[in-house]
Structures are given as C-alpha cells and as structure tokens.
C-alpha cells in the first residue's frame, strides 16, 4: 500500500473515531428525527413527485422532453416511493447544522483559521438527498463565506439544474472549511483538523448519495489514493463510522476541472455520473441524458 494511502486511511479512521463522542449526543436527536420523519413521510413523497424538470441548459443546452407529463405522474421508478419513505432528518437537523457552522466560523484548529476571510461551513437543505462535496473554498467563497459561488460554482449550479433540482434542495460543502492560501492543495494536518466538521454534517443530513467533486474529495472520503479516473463512473461506499450504514458515493470531476477541460467528452462523463445518481435516487433522468 502506498505510504500516502496508509496515512490517509489512518487519518480518516482516527477522525471518524473522534466523532464518536459527538455521535452519542446525536443518538437522542436521531430518535426524534425518525419519529418526525415518519410523521412527514408524505412531504418526502411529494418531493419526489414534484421534481423540477425545467432545465434551461446543461453545459451547452440539453432539453428535457416530456417533462410536463412527468410533473403530474406518479414516481417513475417504483423504488422511488420506497426510498421517499426512508426516514430523514427533522427540523432539528437545521439547528444542528447551524451549530456546526457556528463552530466553523470561530474555528482556529489549523493555520487556515488565521488566513481566511470567512469560514465556509456549507449550505443547503438539512433534508437533502444529495450532498455535493468539494475540496476547499476558493477566493470567491472565502470572500462570501458560501461554498461554490465562483465560476466553478456557477457550473455546479447548472449541473444541479440539469438534474431537475434546485441548489437549495441539495447540500453543498467542502472537505476544508477555510481557503488555503493561493488555492494550494490542502495539507494532511489541515484535513485531519477539519474533517470532523464534514463528518458531523453528513451524520446530521444522512444523504442517500454523496457526490464527491474531484480527486481530493473522493480520496479523502474513501480513504484511498486511487485516481479520479479510477473512482468515477461507478458507485463507491462512504463509511460514516462503525455500526452505521454506508452511503453511496459517486465521484466525478470537479467543476473547476471541467472548466479547464471544457470538452464534450469531459461533460459527457460528468453527465453519465449524474445520470447514475438520479437513477439511484429514483428520480427522472432528463431525456438528453438517456443516450
Ligand atoms: S480549515 Fe477547518 S480546522 Fe482549519 S481553521 Fe478552518 S474550520 Fe478550523
């Protein structure tokens, strides 16, 4: 095993163990979440049925056909009814996420706390079925305190829209919550310090699918040194910790990479990945993406 892989695996395991104490805290709230989720089952079902199918453009303008028929239809996939009934987080999740965000904003556990303008905890729905996870904030994100708001973020918005979703329906976060100077790669000690925040966010939201944007996010979450080419295109399993069910993880290219390599082939690969995510969630796949 490569030296880096061993260290990354150990780092990930240690960080996961470090969140166990916090997990105890979440046991009680998890029970409340399950109760509340049962009470709000119909809301989740509605969410599946009323998918937002208007898509103005995906990279170069894909068009959904037959969207109108789907708007009033039952879920296209029988399993979507079942998945929609999986208990999700309650409104308490929003409070827990805000508590984590508040910790991030005052955090100085690594050196990036001294160089950032704003911490960037993440944002989106506490009930998100999909979490998009990138590497670290850039200059725009550092300035605004929000994830994926620069050019790469605008492209991510288009990808989300192409999936028939809205940005506020998913959750977007990064491995690191503060910007590394000059957008350098995150250091292992920084990831070690920061990863527990993301792990707690995942534990609170409990998404059905994680989309890891780029090699760094995918490698960190999976504890591997494999390339993004090896990881993307097929589901991997993210392990939240001992005794907890794994979460399906799809790795794909980071929007910044897509912008640097804006070829039909790159865009097609990303769309292939996202189609698999939609199928996994039992959501309609836009016509253009079925080929
Ligand atoms: S990067 Fe993470 S660990 Fe480091 S100061 Fe920011 S929030 Fe804290």
What does this structure look like?
This protein has about 290 residues and is α/β, with parallel strands linked by helices. It has a single domain, classed as Uracil-DNA Glycosylase, subunit E (3-Layer(aba) Sandwich). The chain is about 50% helix and about 10% strand. It contains 14 helices and six strands. Strands 1-3-2-4-6-5 form a six-stranded mixed beta sheet, sandwiched between helices. Helix 1 packs across helix 10 and helix 6 runs antiparallel to helix 10. The longest helix has 20 residues. The N and C termini lie far apart (about 40 Å). The N terminus is likely disordered. The site of iron/sulfur cluster has 14 residues, from helix 7 and helix 10.
Outline:
By secondary structure, the protein is of the alpha/beta class. It contains 14 helices and six strands.
List keywords for this structure.
291 residues, alpha/beta, Uracil-DNA Glycosylase, subunit E, binds iron/sulfur cluster
Task: Give the biggest sheet.
Answer: 6 strands, mixed
Bound molecules: iron/sulfur cluster
Provide the spatial order of strands within the biggest beta sheet. Answer: 1-3-2-4-6-5
The span between the termini is 39 Å
Q: If classified by CATH, what would the architecture be?
A: 3-Layer(aba) Sandwich
The unreliable regions are: 1-6, 17-89
Broad CATH class:
Alpha Beta
Q: Write down the Rg.
A: 18 Å
């Amino acid at each position: 095993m490569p030296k880096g892989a061993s260290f990354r695996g150990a780092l990930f395991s240690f960080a996961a163990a470090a969140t166990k104490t916090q997990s105890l805290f979440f046991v009680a709230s998890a029970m409340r979440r399950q109760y509340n989720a049962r009470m709000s089952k119909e809301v989740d079902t509605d969410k599946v049925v009323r998918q937002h199918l208007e898509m103005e453009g995906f990279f170069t303008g894909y068009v959904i056909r037959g969207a109108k028929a789907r708007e009033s239809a039952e879920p296209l996939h029988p399993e979507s009814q079942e998945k929609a009934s999986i208990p999700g987080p309650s409104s308490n999740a929003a409070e827990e996420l805000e508590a984590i965000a508040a910790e991030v904003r005052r955090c100085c556990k690594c050196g990036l706390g001294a160089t950032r303008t704003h911490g960037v905890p993440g944002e989106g729905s506490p009930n998100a079925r999909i979490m998009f996870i990138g590497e670290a904030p850039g200059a725009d994100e550092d300035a605004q305190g929000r994830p994926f708001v620069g050019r790469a973020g605008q492209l991510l918005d288009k990808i989300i829209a192409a999936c028939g979703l809205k940005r506020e329906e998913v959750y977007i976060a990064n491995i690191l919550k503060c910007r590394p100077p000059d957008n350098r790669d995150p250091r292992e000690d920084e990831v070690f310090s920061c990863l527990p925040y993301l792990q707690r966010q995942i534990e609170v939201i409990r998404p059905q699918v994680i989309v890891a944007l780029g090699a760094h996010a995918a490698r960190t979450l999976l504890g591997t040194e494999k390339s993004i080419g090896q990881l993307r295109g097929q589901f991997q399993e993210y392990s939240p910790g001992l005794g907890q069910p794994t979460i399906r993880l799809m790795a794909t290219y980071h929007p910044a990479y897509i912008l640097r390599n804006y070829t039909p082939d790159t865009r097609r690969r990303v769309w292939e990945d996202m189609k698999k995510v939609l199928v996994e969630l039992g959501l309609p796949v836009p016509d253009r993406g079925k080929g």
